[in-house]
């Protein structure tokens, strides 16, 4: 196992909760079942009401207190305020793919803007959620990264994006009939592992059995990262078999230093080794995310190098590559690769035995790249 060089600084404190900002009000999704009961007790309210409130939120997907008829009318407002405060307000919802792709812009309690996307496929429904308002990773081709970090989101703010999508499906607001969210990907605004505590809390709420949580399978949850090596190793020890998606974007340090600035702190070799260790520990295949940029990282020789880098670990199919046709931001020099170059990239990787897919490009007409909608609104 390699370790950072002695002159390399530790993970910067800026990746933790930004200071000096108000926190959102406490919500039952921030708390375990026991903590919810304790909070009600502290407020002089019956502890057993916490389970009723959790059932309304996670199992019945209710957001109107008037429908919570098992709560006493005299206490209902106080109970709802204690554990179900309003966290975010939808500002705009844009639709594509005949209404089966829905992107929502949310205003948080302090005015920060974030986005989530619901994507319905014939066999599944995937929610793409944000974990931070903005992002501090400064990747130059990313709309969110160029806006900088405003603040971390709370566990409940993250979970609320999924619950809102679940409500839309349950109420038959998405073409295809009533349904449920089967997959959640932490690939919206922000670097999830830079907001580690809240993201792990959200993963636990998503996977806790109802009514303590949404009761999803951990295998349906994907957490992405640009490569915060200490946090990848921490995630491997959580005992939650989520899929890890590593946003690599380049197989060599020279280019990745430019495309993913955190690479100057954790090299390609260190980052890929941490991903391999994650796969070995969890027995979950890692996804390598690779945004294809014309003339930047889509050369055939880089496909060969990427294959060699990934083949340096294990032989049990621990990894697959997910190529992402770049959704360029307005005025950006970064553009999508030529389809012929994309096909050759796939061919080269598959020739080296690396399973490779090209991501379905949904939502281009609704500012599909994370951060685009918030940037235009802000």
TrEMBL record:
GO molecular function: methyltransferase activity
Residues where [4Fe-4S] cluster binds: 135, 139, 142
Similarity comment: family membership: Belongs to the radical SAM superfamily. RlmN family.
Note describing how the cofactor binds: Binds 1 [4Fe-4S] cluster. The cluster is coordinated with 3 cysteines and an exchangeable S-adenosyl-L-methionine.
GO biological process, one term: methylation
Domain of life from the UniProt record: Bacteria
Active site: 115 (proton acceptor), 370 (s-methylcysteine intermediate)
Cross-referenced InterPro entries: Aldolase_TIM (IPR013785), Methyltransferase_A (IPR040072), RNA_MTrfase_RlmN (IPR027492), rRNA_lsu_MTrfase_RlmN/Cfr (IPR004383), rSAM (IPR007197), rSAM_sf (IPR058240)
Annotated compartments: Cytoplasm
Enzyme class: transferase
Pfam families associated with the record: Radical_SAM
Region (Disordered): 1-28
UniProt binding sites for S-adenosyl-L-methionine: 190-191, 224, 247-249, 327
Catalytic activity: adenosine(37) in tRNA + 2 reduced [2Fe-2S]-[ferredoxin] + 2 S-adenosyl-L-methionine = 2-methyladenosine(37) in tRNA + 5'-deoxyadenosine + L-methionine + 2 oxidized [2Fe-2S]-[ferredoxin] + S-adenosyl-L-homocysteine; adenosine(2503) in 23S rRNA + 2 reduced [2Fe-2S]-[ferredoxin] + 2 S-adenosyl-L-methionine = 2-methyladenosine(2503) in 23S rRNA + 5'-deoxyadenosine + L-methionine + 2 oxidized [2Fe-2S]-[ferredoxin] + S-adenosyl-L-homocysteine
Primary location class: cytoplasm
Sequence ranges assigned to domain Radical SAM core in this UniProt record: 121-364
Name this polypeptide is given: Probable dual-specificity RNA methyltransferase RlmN
PANTHER family in alphabetical order: 23S RRNA METHYLTRANSFERASE (PTHR30544), RADICAL SAM CORE DOMAIN-CONTAINING PROTEIN (PTHR30544:SF5)
Keywords: 4Fe-4S, Cytoplasm, Disulfide bond, Iron, Iron-sulfur, Metal-binding, Methyltransferase, rRNA processing, S-adenosyl-L-methionine, Transferase, tRNA processing
E.C. number(s) listed in UniProt: 2.1.1.192
Note: Reaction proceeds by a ping-pong mechanism involving intermediate methylation of a conserved cysteine residue.
Described purpose of this protein according to its UniProt entry: Specifically methylates position 2 of adenine 2503 in 23S rRNA and position 2 of adenine 37 in tRNAs.
Co-factor requirement: [4Fe-4S] cluster
Database matches in HAMAP family: RNA_methyltr_RlmN
């Amino acid at each position: 196992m390699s370790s950072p060089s002695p002159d390399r600084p530790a993970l910067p404190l800026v990746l933790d909760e930004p200071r000096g900002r108000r926190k959102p009000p406490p919500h039952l999704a921030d708390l375990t079942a026991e903590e919810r009961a304790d909070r009600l007790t502290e407020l002089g309210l019956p502890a057993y009401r916490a389970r009723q409130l959790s059932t309304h939120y996670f199992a019945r997907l209710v957001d109107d207190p008037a429908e919570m008829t098992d709560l006493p009318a005299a206490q209902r407002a106080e109970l709802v305020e204690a554990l179900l405060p309003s966290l975010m307000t939808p500002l705009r919802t844009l639709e594509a793919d005949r209404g089966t792709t829905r992107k929502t812009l949310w205003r948080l309690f302090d005015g920060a803007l974030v986005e989530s996307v619901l994507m319905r496929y014939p066999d599944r429904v995937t929610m793409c959620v944000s974990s931070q308002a903005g992002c501090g990773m400064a990747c130059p081709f990313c709309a969110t990264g160029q806006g900088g970090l405003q603040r971390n989101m709370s566990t409940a703010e993250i979970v609320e994006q999924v619950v809102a999508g679940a409500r839309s499906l349950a109420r038959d607001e998405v073409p295809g009939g009533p349904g449920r969210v089967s997959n959640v990907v932490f690939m919206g605004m922000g670097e999830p592992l830079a907001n580690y505590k809240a993201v792990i809390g959200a993963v636990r709420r998503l996977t806790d059995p109802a009514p303590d949580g949404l009761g999803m399978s951990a295998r349906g949850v994907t957490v992405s990262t640009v490569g915060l090596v200490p946090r990848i190793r921490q995630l491997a020890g959580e005992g939650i078999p989520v899929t890890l998606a590593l946003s690599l974007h380049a197989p060599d340090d020279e280019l990745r230093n430019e495309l993913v600035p955190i690479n100057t702190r954790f090299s390609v070799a260190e980052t890929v080794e941490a991903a391999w260790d994650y796969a070995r520990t969890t027995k979950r295949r890692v996804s390598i995310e690779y945004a294809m940029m014309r003339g930047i990282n889509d050369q055939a020789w880089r496909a060969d190098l990427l294959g060699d880098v990934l083949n340096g670990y294990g032989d049990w199919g621990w990894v697959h590559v997910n190529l992402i046709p770049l959704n360029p931001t307005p005025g950006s020099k970064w553009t999508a690769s030529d389809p012929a170059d994309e096909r050759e990239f796939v061919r080269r990787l598959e020739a080296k035995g690396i399973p490779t897919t090209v991501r379905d490009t949904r939502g281009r007409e609704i500012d599909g790249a994370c951060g685009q909608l918030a940037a235009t609104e802000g």
